[in-house]
Structure formats: structure tokens, C-alpha cells
Design brief:
With 96 residues, the chain is α/β, with parallel strands linked by helices. The chain has one domain: Aspartate Aminotransferase, domain 2. It has helices at residues 2-14, 37-49, and strands spanning 21-24, 53-57, 80-83, 91-94.
Length: 96
């Protein structure tokens, strides 16, 4: 998955279309598949090296839905963390 993401960024950049953000939903709510912390860390590094922001979409999984933590993942990898639905409020956090 990381290789495919990097390839897509390079292809778009070569066409003159830079990528502003890489968006990932870390927990697939229908299957329960969870992105590992190491995957999110590597994805964050890839995004940073490419000049893109890493956006973690926790709209389905925040407010403790995963049982792991409030966000369900280690959010330190994200430039932006989007939340809503279960928290009964919508918004985002971002790194300064």
C-alpha cells in the first residue's frame, strides 16, 4: 500500500499535479481492519517527504468506538485529525 501511494504521488507530480494531502481512515468500520501504528508512521513520513499533509479520518471511529482509545489509533502521525459522528460534534485537530 505504501509503494502504491508513493507511486501515485510521483505520477501526479510528474504531470504537474501536486498532492496536497494523503487521507486515510485508519479503521475500516465494516470489516474491523485496523491500520497499524507502524503503517501510519510510515505513511506520515511518506506524506511529509512528498510535501503533503497526512489527514487521519476518525469520523467513524473516534469517541472510543474501537475500545482502544478515544481516537482508536495513535494520532501523533497526523497533520490533521478529522472527527465527528460518534463524538456528536464535528471538527479537526491539526499540528501547529
Amino acid at each position: 500500500m505504501l509503494e502504491e501511494t508513493l507511486k501515485a504521488i510521483k505520477v501526479n507530480r510528474s504531470k504537474g499535479t501536486p498532492i496536497a494531502a494523503v487521507v486515510v481512515a485508519p479503521i475500516h468500520t465494516q470489516t474491523g481492519a485496523v491500520a497499524s501504528d507502524s503503517f501510519l508512521s510510515e505513511l506520515g513520513k511518506l506524506a511529509q517527504e512528498s510535501g503533503a499533509a497526512l489527514v487521519i479520518d476518525a469520523t467513524e471511529t473516534s469517541a472510543g468506538a474501537s475500545g482502544k482509545s478515544f481516537w482508536g489509533i495513535k494520532a501523533e502521525h497526523a497533520d490533521y485529525l478529522v472527527f465527528g459522528k460518534r463524538s456528536y460534534t464535528e471538527g479537526f485537530y491539526c499540528r501547529p
